[in-house]
Design goal:
This protein is an alpha+beta fold and 67 residues long. The chain is built from 1 helix and 2 strands. Strand 1 and strand 2 form a beta hairpin. The N and C termini lie far apart (37 Å).
Length: 67
């Protein structure tokens, strides 16, 4: 978490908030039963670009669920 002094960040965000970002979230809609798959753009800040690059470097192919 960016800006969270309690968990080790060196400084808070300028407005005193903390930043927690889910790059991607998938879930089954509770009413329609359809899978919802959302991907957020990466904020245009160095730390997020570094995290995105690390995630891509460590990405493993997803196991196929259609067997």
């Amino acid at each position: 978490m960016r800006g969270d002094l309690k968990y080790g960040d060196k400084r808070s965000n300028p407005d005193g908030s903390i930043s927690l970002m889910a790059r991607r979230i998938r879930f089954v809609h509770p009413v329609s039963g359809k899978e919802i798959d959302l991907t957020a753009p990466v904020p245009d800040e160095r730390v997020w670009h570094e995290l995105e690059a690390a995630a891509i470097a460590n990405q493993q192919p997803e196991a196929s669920t259609n067997q």
